[in-house]
């Protein structure tokens, strides 16, 4: 088992911005079309995070032309270039599956307002 953990440790990316459930994120995902490769941006609400280590995944939900679309991204995949937080959300649940049943303004998550930490006075 130590061999597997050693291989997985090499593949873990540490350069991701810290995001959590309820945040609105932009996921920059590489798409291969024939011989060309391009980056597609997928913006939506993080409704779940699963597993740990290299197998870590997160589910992003967005509304596209009135239809809810969910996509599961492996966090440490080489195809995920970066994850950028657009807006922090204030939630009290680990999984936001109830958002699937909500429509319009009720499907929104309230914004979390973070305070800036002041430097100690000398």
Automatic annotation (TrEMBL):
<dbReference type="GO" id="GO:0003735">
    <property type="term" value="F:structural constituent of ribosome"/>
</dbReference>
<dbReference type="Pfam" id="PF01245">
    <property type="entry name" value="Ribosomal_L19"/>
</dbReference>
<comment type="function">
    <text>This protein is located at the 30S-50S ribosomal subunit interface and may play a role in the structure and function of the aminoacyl-tRNA binding site.</text>
</comment>
<comment type="similarity">
    <text>Belongs to the bacterial ribosomal protein bL19 family.</text>
</comment>
<dbReference type="GO" id="GO:0006412">
    <property type="term" value="P:translation"/>
</dbReference>
<dbReference type="InterPro" id="IPR038657">
    <property type="entry name" value="Ribosomal_bL19_sf"/>
</dbReference>
<keyword id="KW-0687">Ribonucleoprotein</keyword>
<protein>
    <recommendedName>
        <fullName>Large ribosomal subunit protein bL19</fullName>
    </recommendedName>
</protein>
<keyword id="KW-0689">Ribosomal protein</keyword>
<dbReference type="GO" id="GO:0022625">
    <property type="term" value="C:cytosolic large ribosomal subunit"/>
</dbReference>
<dbReference type="InterPro" id="IPR018257">
    <property type="entry name" value="Ribosomal_bL19_CS"/>
</dbReference>
<dbReference type="InterPro" id="IPR008991">
    <property type="entry name" value="Translation_prot_SH3-like_sf"/>
</dbReference>
<dbReference type="InterPro" id="IPR001857">
    <property type="entry name" value="Ribosomal_bL19"/>
</dbReference>
């Amino acid at each position: 088992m130590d061999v597997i953990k050693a291989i997985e440790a090499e593949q873990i990316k540490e350069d991701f911005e810290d995001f959590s459930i309820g945040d609105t994120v932009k996921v920059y995902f590489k798409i291969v079309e024939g011989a060309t490769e391009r980056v597609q941006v997928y913006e939506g609400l993080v409704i779940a995070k699963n597993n740990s280590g290299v197998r870590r995944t997160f589910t992003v939900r967005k509304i596209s032309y009135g239809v809810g679309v969910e996509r599961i991204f492996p966090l440490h995949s080489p195809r995920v270039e970066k994850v950028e937080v657009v807006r922090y959300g204030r939630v009290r649940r680990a999984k936001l599956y109830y958002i699937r049943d909500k429509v319009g303004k009720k499907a929104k998550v309230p914004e979390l307002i973070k305070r800036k930490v002041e430097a100690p006075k000398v």
